[in-house]
Amino acid sequence: MDNSNKNSDIEIMPHPIETASANEVECCKAILTKANQLQYQLNKLSSKIDGLHLQNQSEFIDASLQNFTRDLDNQVASIKAIQNMQAEEFEQKLLEKDRMRLELLDALNKQEQSHLQETEKLKGQLEARDKRCLELEQQVETYKSNTEHNTSCPICFDQWNSSAAHRLVALGCGHLFGDNCIRNCLQQVSECPQCRARADQCEIRYIYGRPV
What we know:
This protein is mainly alpha-helical. It has helices spanning 22-51, 54-150, 179-188, and strands at residues 168-170, 176-178, 205-206. The longest helix has 97 residues, at 54-150. 7% of the residues are buried. Among the domains are: 22-109; 153-212, 2-Layer Sandwich (Herpes Virus-1), CATH 3.30.40. Strands 2-1-3 form a three-stranded antiparallel β-sheet. α1 packs antiparallel against α2. The chain is rod-shaped, with a radius of gyration of 57 Å. The protein starts with 21 loop residues before the first helix and ends in a 6-residue tail after the last strand. A hairpin with a 5-residue loop joins β1 and β2 (176-178).
């Protein structure tokens, strides 16, 4: 029997597991320690074998190898059990991460829909405000046009004044004009330039108190 390698240590390295917990690491260390103890026992058995008679060596070796093989199988089974447990735990963590990812995506989609609804609502409000502003601008232009028309002579379209030659006057029909404009018109045609009613310069009346 060759015992040249009987003193060599059998080094059993634990399986690298990135996500191993503290208890799992301790278990792997215990397995490694047990394997080293088995190696030590194997070396002692080898030493004993050297002192036995030749006829007893074969039986002793077979029994020792069977015990060693049984212990080694138990250690391998323990390592596989740990690996299976770690694989299941890793799979559960992956499933949990997938669930969290789906929940996050759903929340983001709902938030996006909410933002789109808010955007559409604000867009509608802006359009309504722009429409209202346009209506107000049109009203202002209309009021401005009416004001300018009410404060302007319908003959020359210039604004009348309160004391000069173009002061505000009225005919008997009630229409308003600038003084010099209506006098010039009546010298040519004796009728109101607006309603064509009969009119004369003697009917001209000055208007007081009207804002100019």
